[in-house]
TrEMBL record:
Residues 10-49 form the F-box domain. The lineage of its organism: Eukaryota, Viridiplantae, Streptophyta, Embryophyta, Tracheophyta. This is F-box domain-containing protein. InterPro entries: F-box-assoc_dom_typ3, F-box-assoc_interact_dom, F-box_dom, SCF_F-box_component. Pfam families: F-box (PF00646), FBA_3 (PF08268). It comes from the Eukaryota. PANTHER family: BNACNNG10540D PROTEIN (PTHR31672), F-BOX DOMAIN-CONTAINING PROTEIN (PTHR31672:SF2). Coiled coil: none annotated. It comes from Zingiber officinale (Ginger). NCBIfam families: F_box_assoc_1 (TIGR01640).
Length: 363
């Protein structure tokens, strides 16, 4: 892009820097101004600039399992539909990473998509096996689903892992792991012995950091770590303070602007820990939050997303946000009337980016 592309008063470089700091909705409104701005969000240099400089506040995605509809909620109380209709399928969100989401098809079991909901680009992954999975012949169950996207190479891996079981039998200790590589467009398969268990929240809260995928086990004794490149599973210890006080506490795994974070809720106190060094497994206490102001909701509140400024929380019918700097609670969204599933059951943290997938649809 040269200075001759615009006749405005601002230098082109300054204009690009301004656009790279806009929310993604505002950025795409500018596409109708001229052809240059129309193609700007899809240029490689701007995609990388937007990832480095755009606001890093997460937004919350809410899925309604009954209807398959999605909503997005941001820190400014902007509630809007979150459309995945460009996939032409009813899907569930299973994981997200750097603005890309991994979705599983509800109608066609075993079909997975990786897409960018902002740009409406998507990629249909090949099936992990030729014969479709059926209720009568389950080979394994995808207990864990992870998405690992490298913002430097723009390559990604999708990880499906679950315990092997024969039909009519309880799962064995054989942990089957299949990894999709976007470069080779193929799956690799490995089997290891494992006896860890996971709750629904553990399965949904997966964090990709330093090239590794992290899950919190049901025992809350350690993090389960997987390297998509080498296919090696390992364990990572939690902070000593968390291990000593985990009895009577609740633990949750979140991403804090690219770092692994563990949130511990004990009574009326919430502690946020951040993994500052992977090699030495060094944890640092990032902040503590008192829940006295929401004492009635404290027992049923779940952290969903966190940044250095705010933390998103979900209850049965409410979405709330706490400003870590101003120490103020706000209600962002609420549901009137009865609900089949609590909001925390299908709420996900998400950050908008412009990273591409293949098979781009027209906006």
């Amino acid at each position: 892009m040269s200075s001759s592309d615009f006749n405005g008063c601002l230098p082109v470089d300054l204009l690009v820097q301004i656009l790279a700091r806009l929310p993604v909705k505002s950025l795409f409104r500018f596409r109708s101004v001229c052809k240059i701005l129309c193609r700007l969000p899809f240029e490689k240099h701007f995609i990388e600039l937007y990832f480095r400089t755009a606001p890093k506040d997460p937004i919350l995605l809410l899925e309604y399992p009954e209807s398959g509809a999605f909503l997005s909620v941001d820190r400014f109380r902007d509630v809007s539909p979150f459309a995945l209709g460009f996939l032409n399928d009813k899907v569930n969100i299973r994981a997200s990473c750097h603005g890309l989401t991994c979705c599983s098809s509800v109608r066609n079991r075993g079909v997975y998509y990786v897409c960018n909901p902002v740009t409406r680009e998507f990629r249909v992954l090949p099936r992990t096996r030729d014969r479709p999975l059926t209720r009568c012949q389950p080979e394994y169950e995808a207990t864990l689903v992870g998405l690992a996207f490298d913002p430097f190479s723009w390559n990604f891996n999708v990880v499906l892992a679950g315990f092997y079981r024969l039909f009519g039998h309880r799962p064995r200790d054989d942990f089957v792991c299949q990894v999709f590589d976007s470069q080779t467009n193929s799956w690799s398969r490995s089997v290891s012995s494992m006896n860890d268990e996971f709750t629904h929240m553990n399965r949904c809260q997966v964090v990709f950091s330093c090239g590794l995928l992290h899950w919190l086990t049901q025992s809350w004794s350690h993090l389960l770590v997987f390297d998509p490149k080498s296919g090696v599973w390992s364990k990572m210890s939690l902070p000593d303070e968390v291990l000593m006080t985990r009895s009577g506490s609740r633990l949750y795994l979140l991403e804090l602007e690219g770092s692994v974070s563990v949130v511990q809720i004990t009574g009326m106190l919430m502690s946020i820990w951040v993994l500052t060094n992977h090699c030495t497994e060094l944890w640092t206490l990032f902040d503590t939050v008192h829940l006295r102001c929401i004492k009635v909701l404290a027992a049923s509140i779940f952290p969903i997303g966190v940044s250095r400024d705010v933390i998103f929380m979900a209850t049965q019918k409410k979405i709330m946000i706490y400003n870590l700097k101003d120490k103020v609670w706000k209600e962002l969204y609420s549901v009137n009337g009865p609900v089949t599933y609590p909001l925390w059951f299908s709420a996900y943290g998400f950050r908008s980016t412009l990273f591409p997938c293949r098979q781009r649809r027209a906006l």
